[in-house]
């Protein structure tokens, strides 16, 4: 079995390290159970895919993956939390008892709950297990939304966005987890998206809907705060660019599909949320340069 797994590596990598990997696998699984052998092979396969896709901790994309995974997880927790809020408000406003049926709607609610639980575990600094739980929940949510078909009114955009977000969360290299100092900020981003819109769903504020724009506004505000207050030279060096705005935009990009899907679900069209997302990314890219030029213009006066 290990021979087929090693074929996932690029040819040059396999020629250089294939024998060493095979010996390490044989040593690690000597006398082990079949489940342990499968788990070890799965870890090697994951590393092979990261190597082929250039997402290891030594690659530029791999070094930016932790920040992207953290923002993607925050977006997933917020969107799934909003789904649970809509479900609860619907149940609470129902005049009769709402039974829990075995159907795709219940599956979506349970998967959304799993995503939120996984995000809480990951942001509590158990990143490995929490991110995996969240990814499983996202894939389950995607499958349930697709199976719902026209009843969910979005059997394409939301499942695709959930799958992309799960990939972004899992793409974080195991030896380079997100910074623990940024995890509270990611939780704050998720809460800033979820809490106001939950108040809207509950009728606690005089606004009827946000048409899906509020999460993008929060993403923009978070990106600007991070870029303008604490620009990251590490990300700039990773992307070989002097612009901290471009680095922040690249880190925010993987979190956009799920926010676009939320806008599509709320507003009924995908073009406007997509254009709004592009505007957010362009603003993040240009903001540091505009601010720097403005400061220079003021200093010359």
TrEMBL record:
Entry superkingdom: Bacteria
Keyword terms of this UniProt record: Membrane, Transmembrane, Transmembrane helix
Parts of the chain that traverse the membrane: 64-85, 105-126, 133-149, 155-173, 185-205, 270-291
Protein name: Integral membrane protein
Protein species of origin: Streptomyces kunmingensis
Lineage: Bacteria, Bacillati, Actinomycetota, Actinomycetes, Kitasatosporales
């Amino acid at each position: 079995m290990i021979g087929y797994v090693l074929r996932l590596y690029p040819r040059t990598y396999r020629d250089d390290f294939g024998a060493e990997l095979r010996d390490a696998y044989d040593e690690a699984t000597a006398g082990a159970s079949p489940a342990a052998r499968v788990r070890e092979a799965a870890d090697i396969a994951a590393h092979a895919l990261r190597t082929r896709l250039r997402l290891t901790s030594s690659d530029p994309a791999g070094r930016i993956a932790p920040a992207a995974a953290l923002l993607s997880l925050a977006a997933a927790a917020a969107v799934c939390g909003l789904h649970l809020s809509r479900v609860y408000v619907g149940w609470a406003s129902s005049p009769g008892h709402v039974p829990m049926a075995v159907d795709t709607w219940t599956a979506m609610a349970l998967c959304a709950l799993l995503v939120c639980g996984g995000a809480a575990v990951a942001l509590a600094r158990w990143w490995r297990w929490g991110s995996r739980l969240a990814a499983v929940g996202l894939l389950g949510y995607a499958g349930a939304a697709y199976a719902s078909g026209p009843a969910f009114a979005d059997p394409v955009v939301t499942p695709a966005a959930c799958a992309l977000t799960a990939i972004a969360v899992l793409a974080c290299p195991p030896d380079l987890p997100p910074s623990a100092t940024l995890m509270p900020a990611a939780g704050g981003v998720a809460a800033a998206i979820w809490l106001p819109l939950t108040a809207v769903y509950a009728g606690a504020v005089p606004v009827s809907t946000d048409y899906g724009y509020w999460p993008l506004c929060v993403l923009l505000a978070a990106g600007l705060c991070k870029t303008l207050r604490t620009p990251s030279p590490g990300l700039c060096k990773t992307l070989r660019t002097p612009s901290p705005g471009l680095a922040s935009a690249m880190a925010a990009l993987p979190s956009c599909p799920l926010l676009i899907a939320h806008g599509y679900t709320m507003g009924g069209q995908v073009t406007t949320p997509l254009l709004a997302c592009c505007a957010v990314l362009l603003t993040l890219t240009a903001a540091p340069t505009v601010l720097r030029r403005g400061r220079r213009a003021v200093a010359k006066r």
